[in-house]
Amino acid sequence: MTTFIGTATAIVTPFLPDESIDFDSLGKLIDFQIEQGIEGIVPCGSTGEAATMSHQEKVAVIRFAVERVAGRVKVIAGTGSNDTRATIILTRTAKELGADGVLLVAPYYNKPTQNGFFEHFRAIAEAVHIPQIIYNVPGRTGSNILAETQLRIAESSTNIIATKEASASLEQMMEIIANAPSHFSVLSGDDSLALPVIACGGKGVIAVISNYAPKRFGDLVRAALNGNYAEARRLQYGLLTMMKLNFIESNPIPVKFILSQMGMISEQYRLPLTPASVHNKAAILKGMKECGIE
């Protein structure tokens, strides 16, 4: 995988009532994604509640995803953490399991310097030769990887092929796109910004909304990539309400509730995440009806 183009779903991790992983539901959800035309699956991301999964559980989910996908689309395993050594271990395991690439979240809590970010990603790239995607999400990590730092990282390692940019700064994303080496691209980390990011030269998105609307959102992204912006805008505004509602409470609380309403998973979370409030559930149900999500 020298690059990734299109929509990859940051897939939820379904749980059973005892909080163990519901592999049966996960398998059905993966099949649903592929049948609806999604180009990639991202297990063990923040939407997959990786923060409350053990190393062994992450390995099991990545193995299951690779086997279930069976080469039909790309599998980009979430292997990042705030511990460089632990990230290298899980990244190496993901490669051994057959993942097509890995998603590496910026180290959180530690709040490294910009040089610390550079050395972190360079160390992983040197240790494991597998396509790697930076995940810059300041709202969760507390630190922004500046455009100049991401470009420096990209220039240093050809197996770092993209950034999932969730800084919400279109200006920062444009700076990266304008100056990136040929092997490095920008993927939107915010569903609502996928269209403008692609219009500016981005190559796709790692998405939340595609968990339950994979065809509609995938069609939006494909239309934008093909330059059909009128169709992309039509689809964008048809889904905009749900894009907002996905974050009415912490992700993946709303998306798991939506999937449970569709009969695809049980509404189970691991603490410290809890079900959405009654008020917010009512707002989500109203939005689902308005947007034709069922």
Write up this protein.
This protein has helices spanning 23-35, 55-69, 84-97, 114-127, 138-141, 147-156, 170-179, 194-199, 214-225, 229-245, 253-261, 278-291; strands at 6-10, 40-42, 74-78, 101-105, 132-136, 160-165, 185-188, 204-207. It is of the alpha/beta class. The protein has a single domain (6-228), classed as Aldolase class I (TIM Barrel, Alpha-Beta Barrel), CATH 3.20.20.70. Strand 1, helix 1 (23-35) and strand 2 form a beta-alpha-beta unit. The longest helix is centred in the C-terminal third of the chain and has 17 residues, at 229-245. The two termini are 34 Å apart. The model has no long low-confidence stretch (mean pLDDT 97).
Question: What descriptors fit this protein?
Answer:
single chain; 294 residues; alpha/beta; 8-stranded parallel beta barrel; globular
CATH architecture: Alpha-Beta Barrel
Q: Report the radius of gyration as a whole number of Å.
A: 18 Å
Note the total helix count.
Answer: 12
- Into which percent range does the helicity of residues fall? 40-55%
Q: What portion of the residues fall into strands of 2 or more residues?
A: 5-15%
Summarize model confidence as the mean pLDDT.
Answer: 97
Strand order of the largest sheet: 1-2-3-4-5-6-7-8
Number of domains: 1
Give the biggest beta sheet.
8 strands, parallel, barrel
Secondary structure elements and pairings:
Blueprint lengths: L5 E5 L12 H13 L4 E3 L12 H15 L4 E5 L5 H14 L3 E5 L8 H14 L4 E5 L1 H4 L5 H10 L3 E6 L4 H10 L5 E4 L5 H6 L4 E4 L6 H12 L3 H17 L7 H9 L16 H14 L3
Parallel strand pairs: 1-2, 1-8, 2-3, 3-4, 4-5, 5-6, 6-7, 7-8
